[in-house]
Amino acid sequence: MRDWLIGLGMATVGLIVSWGVLVLLARRLPPGILRDLAAFVPDCVTAVRRLRRDPRVPRRARVAIVVAGLWVASPIDLIPEFLPVIGPLDDIVVVALALRYAARQVPRQVLLDAWPGEPRLLLRLLGGTVASPPS
Fold first, then answer.
1. Together in a domain, 69 and 107
2. Does one domain contain both 16 and 38?
3. Where do transmembrane segments lie in this chain (predicted)?
4. What would the pLDDT profile of 66-110 be if each residue is shown by its tens digit?
């Protein structure tokens, strides 16, 4: 039992150290697409949290946003997170689909106000067809 606990402790320390290295490397990325991708999932989580509390977001859009937030927070993924580059792909797709769904029901400015990152990324994700809210 002791050997198992030591192995688990070493694995935990290794995971935390690797996260720290990844954070340091992400901060050193030059401006561009790689830096934008590194910030995309945290920006999505922040936007989901803000939109979930916004009274201007209709119930259906809020439900889609909450489901996307739960998907990102869930430890169960279609593609394991530890795989380089493609690990967070399923999270990105689910959040992108939820934001596009919400964009059909929420004014564009509400989404832009909730988005903490570079606005051009959100605008590119939403595309050109964002409807005004239903009357």
1. yes
2. no
3. 6-26
4. 888 888 777 777 777 677 667 777 777 887 788 888 888 888 889
